[in-house]
Amino acid sequence: MTSPVLVEERGGWRRITLNRPDKLNAFTAELHRALAGAFADAAADESCRAVLLTGAGRAFCAGQDLEAIGDDPSGVGDLLDELYNPLVRSIRALPKPVVCAVNGVAAGAGANVALACDIVLASRKAKFIQAFCKIGLVPDSGGTWILPRLVGDARARALALTGDPVSAEQAESWGLIWRAVDDEALAPEAERLAAHLATQPTYALGLIKQAFAASAANTLDAQLDLESELQRDASTTPDYREGVAAFAAKRPPAFTGRAR
User: Within a domain: residue 62?
Assistant: First the structure.
């Protein structure tokens, strides 16, 4: 039986691929379990210093597989509590960078899972669609939180209320994603980025993610205090000492990614 998620180790980083191409990589409970396991394994493996998430075939992810829900709508909220919310939390909390390569349509929860990643690249054929209103639902998987922070309240409301698609070029222009690239360049550029991040001071990158995660709820004073705390932590690592030594010697640093 074909696995719904493929994991490839790439020398310091991992490529995680949603693998239901015949269903546009739509989410099922089985796919969720496999994806949760892949992220848990990446978090536990100190040799894994970055993650690349993408989809197989012509789509990134079409959201929830509605056929897998069936006719009983009572479990839709439970799906969020049991599967989607833990997935988004695990991506945001992973103490190493997550790159997402959106290789085609990213709709519904598929769009919002992509946007939960740290750096998002998209092929020019990709589209981001808040498709929830088309079936009488509310944006989930963090959509109502992350969209206003990325594109502002006016655009976020319009995207959620109309379900209109956003092209990769428009998504880049609005700041919804990092970059739109030519279709054939997506995989190699995303892999180069993941490989680069895997050579960087991983522990410090995890602290950067922690700082940004806290900033949405913090006052400026609270955020300044947090920055001081995290900077003290970062400055005690071997990578800080290596970075300073490499700068002084005018050579490339050799980071280990470790805290101590």
Answer: yes
